[in-house]
Design brief:
Layout lengths: L4 E6 L7 H4 L8 E5 L9 H7 L4 E5 H9 L4 E7 L10 E4 L14 E4 L5 H14 L7 E4 L15 E2 L6 H7 L4 E3 L10 E3 L4 H12 L6 E6 H6 L1 H19 L12 H17 L21
Parallel strand pairs: 1-2, 1-3, 6-7, 6-9, 7-8
Antiparallel strand pairs: 3-11, 4-11, 5-9, 5-10
Helix pairs in contact: 4-9
């Protein structure tokens, strides 16, 4: 019997990954050595700086930049961690007075990192739908980007090391902030975009998609040497997702397949290019190889 290939793997705990991570499903072809990091994005630097994994969850903008800098990674069309609308993520401190979209010019906006995928989505929406001049905003970052080759652009400020974004926002040291999954449930924090959930629903209907943040990335050598293992990884992820969705009537926020994600990928590529995060506007099919493109 052929011994299973053991793969160093970075994958967060989500409803659609739990069956796989808990060992409820498995395969004689492959086994996974899951990294113990609690939050997957805290290991994204290791994915692109150290080539630490054969299989890794990765933020889309991080993958696009990794491709631009020649990292040996191939995208797999499997969304992990639910896609979500982003309109509510731009917030301000309502106790300090109303902040409208038309007033963002010259304002100080905090972001975790300049090339963060959530930030890229929000900036793209601001520019496309609300006419905001992104270069007219004072961006302030709180940490380096995942790619060592991509430092903060000129004119982007770095927050003092002892400062936290929400504290600075509440103290008036920032006018607004873009906060994703870490957005606290604080009544003082109000969305800048009016009626954000209705706006997001209209945006989703217009574009025919939900914004997605994380997909799986595969080491290129694994695709070249063991395409059968790559196909098996995808099958296991599909099976794990199916287990999570059994009996559910909720919308599918983790689409699988190139065509199912094509619109979202086209848009995030365009946003990343327009925001000068990548040097060229890649075609969606360029993000995959001959193995992962046809999964």
């Amino acid at each position: 019997m052929t011994q299973a290939v053991k793969l160093r793997t970075l994958l967060g705990d989500y409803p659609n990954t739990l069956a796989l991570k808990r060992g409820a499903i498995g395969s004689p072809l492959v086994s996974f050595e899951f990294d113990p990091v609690k939050v997957a994005n805290r290991a994204f630097k290791r994915v692109v700086r150290e080539n630490a994994f054969e299989v890794a969850e990765l933020a889309l903008v991080t993958f696009l930049q990794a491709k631009a800098y020649g990292k040996p990674l191939v995208l797999m069309p499997a969304v992990v961690g639910a896609g979500r609308y982003q309109h509510h993520c731009l917030v301000y401190n309502a106790e300090r007075g109303r902040l409208r979209v038309a007033e963002l010019a010259g304002k100080r906006i905090g972001i975790r990192a300049y090339a963060q995928t959530t930030v890229t989505w929000v900036r793209g929406i601001l520019a496309d739908d609300y006419g905001v001049d992104l270069d007219g905003i004072q961006w302030m970052t709180f940490e380096d980007g995942h790619l060592a080759e991509f430092p903060d652009p000129p004119g982007v400020a770095r927050a003092p090391q002892d400062k936290k974004m929400v504290d600075m926002l509440l103290a008036g040291e920032l006018d607004a902030a873009i906060i994703g999954t870490d957005l606290p449930d604080d009544p003082r924090l109000a969305p800048v975009l009016p009626d954000p959930h209705a706006a997001a629903a209209a945006w989703g209907a217009r574009h025919g998609m939900v914004p997605i943040n994380h997909m799986m990335a595969i080491d290129r050598s694994l695709c070249e040497q063991r395409p059968d293992v790559v196909r098996e990884i995808y099958r296991l992820l599909q099976e794990s997702k199916a287990e999570a969705r059994r009996g559910s009537a909720s919308p599918d926020l983790t689409p699988f397949g190139v065509d199912a994600n094509r619109r979202a990928l086209e848009l995030i590529v365009r946003y990343a290019y327009e925001q000068r995060l990548i040097p060229q506007c890649y075609a969606v099919d360029e993000l995959f190889d001959d193995v992962t493109r046809v999964l």
